[in-house]
TrEMBL record:
It is found in: Cytoplasm, Cytoskeleton, Cilium axoneme. The gene is Rsph4a. Residues 199-212, 335-344, 395-413, 529-548 have a biased composition (Acidic residues). One of its GO terms (biological process) is cilium movement involved in cell motility. The lineage of its organism: Eukaryota, Metazoa, Chordata, Craniata, Vertebrata. It comes from the Eukaryota. This is RSH4A protein.
Length: 548
């Protein structure tokens, strides 16, 4: 192409003093001012990083020209990131360098107290306590479960081991066991199952009962005063709510053990409250994920009577009742107490270790579920392990109330659950899924295999047996398996309207003729009564004149 002609678009581009922006900024001074404003804008520093775009682009171009990468346009974003990282500088405005606090360092600081010995703790005291310590050997249990790929990391198990040691040194505990770990959305729960020494827990319950009795007494006095003051009150509802089923005493039934929880090893242990039948019954109807905060509310329908600490305690009771198992023959009933408990009708609730226990082989324990038994009482539909008649105190009330309450217990049938030490072979399956799955820890070396049982009803519950050693553990979300999706309970039906009848029907308005007839009849009745009164007055006057 030869030189551009004046009528062509490219004419004059290469002429000296010509620029494509002459039409836009003809004045050189205005052009320089626009350049200075643009450079000032590029030199404006960021309020977050302190960098400016002008220096950043200059450094990018310098890096590209120095390194000359292939396809620089495709990696310009990565080059920009590299330039920014190269210009990163730590704060140096203090006398000492500020080190970054890593999450691992924070966790180590929290668990530092677990590795410190108590004041005055010597080797002699440790030797004396080794034989009688309630502290379980968590690492040994973790070793057996590890054979089947179950458990936590060794570091976390050892930290839990130290946390349990700290709990045993603070609380008057007779027995202690690592129950398991329940997962949460924000934090998890590490759970310890303990039993107090005799008399330690009973004192606390007595104080609570005294407070409750005192509160009831004050309420009765106030009610009597209010009844005297308010004589004309509107009619009250005749609805009588169902009686409140009392919770089982500490050391029995669902409250046989006390549970302590913490979110992480090193954090303080928190004692969970006792569980009530109402909480267990409601926990069966809902399914909620744990948050990791004990004071978190449980928003559900039906409404749960308590917060997350109560819901956690109810789930622990349900899981323990269904998954705590042991080899058959390891426990036995006491001969003296067995006859007395059978006569009472409540079933046996205590057992003891069998000193003559002969362990079965791993093959026998894996092949048949009848070689395993439940050693924790099952929970009835009532929410208790031992059924209680809610109307058993009717003799102290009036005769009328007696007759009414004597009719109601006829409808109530006593609930009887499976007795203690019931074989697992009697557990009901879930549709086509068996309740338990038994397998050895390894098929390659069967001589040293461990019998492992997994609960299909409560996913996350496991048990192992090797010789005379066995244990149970739980790692999961605290939910029961259901083959179908969870469907919340429907709200109760709307209350029906009051039945209509002639005694409550509104009267119709009278017509004009009926009103006039009513007025005339009333006037006639008034006139008749006045005449009768006048005649009586005349008769009285005549009698007085005759007397005179």
């Amino acid at each position: 192409h030869g030189p551009y002609q004046p009528h062509e678009p490219g004419y004059g581009l290469y002429q000296p003093g010509h620029s494509p922006y002459d039409d836009q900024i003809p004045d050189p001074e205005s052009r320089m001012l626009a350049i200075q404003n643009a450079k000032a804008y590029l030199l404006k520093s960021s309020t977050t990083s302190g960098l400016n775009l002008y220096d950043h682009l200059a450094n990018m171009l310098t890096k590209i020209l120095d390194e000359q990468p292939t396809n620089a346009v495709d990696i310009i974003e990565n080059i920009s990131k590299d330039v920014k990282w190269a210009q990163f500088q730590k704060k140096m405005d203090t006398l000492r360098d500020e080190h970054e606090i890593l999450p691992t360092f924070e966790a180590a600081e929290k668990r530092k107290a677990l590795f410190l010995k108590a004041n005055g703790e010597g080797d002699e005291e440790l030797e004396e306590e080794i034989g009688e310590t309630p502290l379980p050997n968590v690492m040994e249990t973790a070793f057996y479960f590890e054979q089947a790929g179950i458990g936590l990391s060794k570091d976390e198990m050892y930290h839990i081991f130290l946390a349990l040691k700290k709990l045993v040194s603070v609380q008057p505990i007779q027995t202690c066991r690592f129950w398991g770990k329940i997962l949460g959305l924000e934090m998890n729960y590490i759970i310890a199952e303990v039993q107090y020494h005799e008399g330690e827990e009973e004192e606390e319950t007595e104080e609570e009962e005294v407070i409750e009795e005192g509160g009831k007494g004050m309420g009765e006095v106030e009610d009597e005063g209010e009844d005297k003051e308010k004589e004309d009150e509107p009619p009250k509802s005749t609805y009588k709510p169902p009686p409140v089923i009392p919770k089982e005493e500490n050391g029995t039934g669902a409250n046989k053990y006390v549970y302590f929880v913490c979110n992480e090893p090193g954090k303080p242990w928190v004692k969970l409250p006792s569980v009530t039948p109402a909480q267990i019954v409601c926990a069966r109807k809902i399914k909620k994920f744990f948050t990791g905060r004990l004071d978190a509310p449980v928003v559900s329908f039906p409404p749960f009577p308590g917060n997350e600490a109560n819901y956690l305690r109810a789930q622990i009771a349900r899981i323990s009742a269904g998954t705590q198992i042991s080899p058959i023959g390891f426990y036995q009933f006491a001969e003296e107490e067995g006859d007395e408990e059978e006569e009472g009708g409540g079933g046996r609730d205590t057992y003891e270790e069998n000193p003559d226990f002969q362990p079965l082989s791993v093959v026998e324990m894996v092949d048949s579920l009848s070689t395993w038994v439940h050693h924790v009482q099952s929970i009835l539909k009532q929410g208790r392990c031992v059924w209680l008649n809610p109307f058993q105190k009717s003799e102290e009330e009036e005769e009328d109330e007696k007759e009414e309450k004597e009719e109601e217990p006829d409808e109530l049938q006593q609930e009887i659950g499976p007795p203690l030490l019931t074989p697992l072979s009697e557990d009901e399956g879930i549709q086509s899924i068996p309740a338990w799955t038994a397998q050895p820890s390894t098929n390659l070396i069967p001589q040293y295999a461990v019998a492992i049982l997994q609960s299909n009803r409560w996913p996350g519950a496991y048990a192992f047996a090797s010789g005379k050693k066995f244990d149970n553990i739980y790692f999961g979300w605290g939910h029961k398996y259901s083959p179908e999706n969870h469907t919340p309970a429907l709200p109760p039906p709307v209350q029906a309207e009051y039945p209509s009848g002639p005694e409550i029907a509104e009267t119709r308005d009278p017509t004009l003729e009926e009103e006039l007839a009513f007025k005339a009849a009333r006037e006639e009745a008034l006139a008749a009564t006045e005449e009768e009164e006048d005649e009586e007055d005349y008769a009285e006057d005549d009698e007085e004149e005759d007397d005179d």
